[in-house]
Amino acid sequence: MRRPGRPRPAPGGFLIALATARKSFTRAFCFGGGSSSSVGKRLFRSTAAESSAKAGTGPRGLATATPPESPFPPAGDDGELESFFLLRHGQTNFNAIGRIQGTLDSSILTEEGISQALEAGKTLASYADLDLGPTVVVSPMGRAQQTLECVRQELRKSEISKDFETVEIVPDIREIELFEWQGQLKEDIIKNNPEQYASWVADPSNFNFSGRYPARDLWKRASNAWDQIRSLQSIQDQPRTLVVAHNAINQALLWTALGCDTTYFRKLSWPNCAVLELQWRRGEARAERYRWVVPEASGFVEAADAARLLKDGEDDNRYTL
C-alpha cells in the first residue's frame, strides 16, 4: 500500500505534547513502575554505542574494519550495490516498564522515545553523502510511524538532507506476534508461566502457542517483506532505502538477508532507535555485510563472519522478550 506524504501529520512539538498529556493515563493503564527517562537512556546507549566506541569492534565485540573517514561514499559509486537502513522505533510506554507489545498497536512513544527518534533523525541528517531515496518503508504500527515522523522533522530542518516524497507501508514488517502474552508484563509471564517462558528462551524456533510458531512466522514474513522492499527499491532506482520497524522483525530482516535461520533469533541486540545498514549486491540472493550507523557509524561485519561468530554465541535478551 503506497501513500504519499506523511503517515501521521504531526510535528514533533505535538508528539511531545501528546506524550506528556497522556503520561498520567499511561502510568495508570500500565500499573506504574519504571522511569522512562533512565530506562530510555540505558537502552539508547546500548551494545551498538558501547561496542562501536571501542576501536576495531562492532556490535557485541565482533572484529570489524576501521571505520572510513567518510561513512558513505557518494550514492552511485558502485551501481551494483544497494543499502537498506533498518531503524527500530523509539522507546514506548510499554518498553519502559517491560510490557509486551507484539502486534498490539496501543503503545506510544515516551518523551525519551521521542528524544531518541529526533536524535536518530539528526544523525541521519548530518551525513552529507547519505542520500536516502525519495521513498521510505515503514511498519503499519503507530510507534514506528511516530518514530518516522520525528526523523522526517529533522530531515526537513537539514540543509544537506531531503525529506521523503513517498511513504510505503509494508504490513509484513509489523512486530512479532506473541498472542496471549501481548499486553502482559514480562515479569508476570515469567512468574505465572515459568516453564513456558523457559521454553521460549531456550528454543524460540520450536516454541509455539497451540501450534502457532512466532519465530517461524516472523522469518516467513521477513522473507516476504524483502521481496517487496527490494522490488520497490529497484523500481524507484534508489540505491539507499530507510526501513522503520521493530526489534524482532528487524532481527529477522537482517538474518534472512544473510541466509541465517531462526536459531539466530536474539543473537544480536537492537536497542531503540539504533540504525543498522545492510549492504546487498543487486541480483544476489544474500546480503554481503552490515554495520551500525546510529548512534554512530562502525566498521562493517561481513556476512560470513557474522554467521560464524554469532552461531554459538550467548543469546542477548536485553531488548527482546
TrEMBL record:
Q: Name one Pfam family in it.
A: His_Phos_1
**What SUPFAM superfamilies does the annotation carry?**
Phosphoglycerate mutase-like (SSF53254)
> What does the record give under GO molecular function?
phosphatase activity
Q: Which residues bind substrate?
A: R88, H89, G90, Q91, T92, N93, F94, N95, R143
Span list, region Disordered = 50-78
- InterPro entries under this entry? His_Pase_superF_clade-1, His_PPase_superfam, PG/BPGM_mutase_AS, PGM_Phosphatase
Specify the domain of life of the species encoding this protein: Eukaryota
Q: What is this protein called?
A: Plastid phosphoglycerate mutase protein
